[in-house]
DNA sequence: ACCCAGGGTCGTC
DNA sequence: GACGACCCTGGG
């Protein structure tokens, strides 16, 4: 049954910025500029009209509560942007470019698998792989005569063999996803324990134990999932590039020391480094 | 047709 | 700690 939730006078909410900034892979642009996506057991369309945000869709629960949580609507991004803008002009510019970004509260399991798939991969292909995983192992939901598929639970995904995964186009990530799925299935409380872990170093340490999770992927999981660690600073090729261009200015960006970037990010951006990273990433990729 | 890069990680040295 | 390999695909 279709539900609707309208958010009035919302600042810092631009669907394009939220869905195209690389934190999520299951949202697609419609002809009218709105976006439709799947999260949890929900299919939602998000449309911006003037200062109103209109959420429409089929929801396993109350659409308002689901959206408040997922879209991080209780966090004051105006305040965050004010703080970050005062740091320097580069950040101010990137924030103007992606002023409507919000960091989603995505499911931990989905984020874990999605970012294992992201390794040495590009966004269109990552999206394709995740879509095929969902279609083959998730639940079908029909809305407005179209089929959507939820991201498979770890139990559902455990039905896939390494070869199945390879055939869905995961490439060398097949074993990593297979093994991680196996670990999660064999330790039923694993993910809940991670969500209760307050110590960020301990949390990172635990995430790094999953096959396919290295430092970058661990940071992405901590930042983009319900773990919501805003102080982590995932360093990929784009972030390395933009930080080098703005501050370090070495000729060969691949030679820039990761420790140096981490130190710089911590000093400059402090406990909001993760959000700063998102503005910089989105700006450098798109502008 | 060919080459390159992509939200990196892993095994080996 | 530094390499190279890794599966696949879209774009130059």
Could you walk me through the main structural features you see in this protein, from its secondary elements to its overall organization?
Helix 4 packs across helix 15, helix 5 (108-117) runs antiparallel to helix 12 and helix 13 (237-248) crosses helix 15 (273-286). The longest helix has 15 residues, at 123-137. This protein is an alpha+beta fold. The protein has helices spanning 15-20, 63-70, 77-85, 89-97, 108-117, 123-137, 154-157, 162-167, 174-186, 190-196, 200-207, 215-224, 237-248, 258-269, 273-286, and strands at 2-7, 27-29, 35-39, 42-49, 52-58, 140-143, 146-149. The protein contains 15 helices and seven strands. It has a five-stranded antiparallel β-sheet. The chain is globular. It starts with a strand and ends with a helix. It has three domains: 2-74, TATA-Binding Protein, CATH 3.30.310; 76-98 and 230-287, Orthogonal Bundle (Endonuclease Iii, domain 2), CATH 1.10.1670.10; 108-224, Endonuclease III, domain 1. The structure holds a DNA duplex (13 and 12 nucleotides).
Quickly list its features.
7 strands; 50% helix; two-stranded antiparallel ribbon; Endonuclease Iii, domain 2; alpha+beta; DNA-binding; Endonuclease III, domain 1; 287 residues
Q: Which percent band covers the strand fraction? A: 5-15%
Count of helical regions: 15
Mass-distribution shape: globular
Order of helices and strands: EHEEEEHHHHHEEHHHHHHHHH
The secondary-structure class comes to alpha+beta
Helix share, percent = 40-55%
Question: Could you say what the CATH architecture of the largest domain is?
Answer: Orthogonal Bundle
CATH superfamily of the largest domain: Hypothetical protein, domain 2
């Amino acid at each position: 049954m279709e539900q609707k939730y309208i958010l009035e006078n919302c600042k810092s909410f631009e669907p394009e910025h939220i869905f195209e900034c690389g934190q999520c892979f299951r949202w697609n642009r419609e002809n009218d500029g709105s976006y439709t996506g799947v999260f949890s057991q929900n299919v939602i369309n998000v449309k911006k009209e003037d200062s109103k945000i209109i959420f429409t869709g089929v929801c396993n629960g109350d659409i308002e509560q689901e959206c408040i949580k997922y879209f991080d609507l209780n966090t004051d991004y105006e305040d965050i942007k004010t703080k970050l803008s005062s740091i320097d002009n580069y950040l101010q510019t990137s924030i103007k470019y992606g002023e409507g970004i919000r960091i989603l509260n995505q499911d931990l399991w989905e984020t874990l698998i999605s970012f294992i798939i992201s390794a040495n991969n590009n966004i269109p292909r990552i999206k394709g792989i995740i879509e095929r995983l969902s279609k083959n192992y998730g639940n079908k939901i029909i809305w407005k005569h179209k089929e959507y598929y939820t991201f498979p639970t770890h139990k559902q995904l455990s039905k896939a063999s390494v070869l199945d995964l390879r055939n869905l186009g995961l490439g060398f990530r097949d074993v990593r996803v297979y093994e991680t799925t196996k670990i999660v299935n064999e330790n039923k409380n694993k993910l809940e324990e991670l969500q209760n872990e307050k110590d960020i170093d301990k949390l990172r340490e635990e995430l790094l134990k999953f096959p396919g999770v290295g430092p970058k992927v661990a940071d992405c999981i901590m930042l983009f999932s319900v773990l919501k660690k805003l102080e982590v600073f995932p360093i990929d090729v784009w972030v390395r590039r933009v930080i080098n261009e703005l501050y370090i200015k070495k000729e060969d960006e691949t030679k820039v020391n990761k420790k140096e970037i981490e130190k710089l990010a911590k000093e400059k951006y402090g406990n909001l480094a993760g959000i700063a990273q998102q503005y910089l990433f989105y700006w450098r990729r798109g502008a």
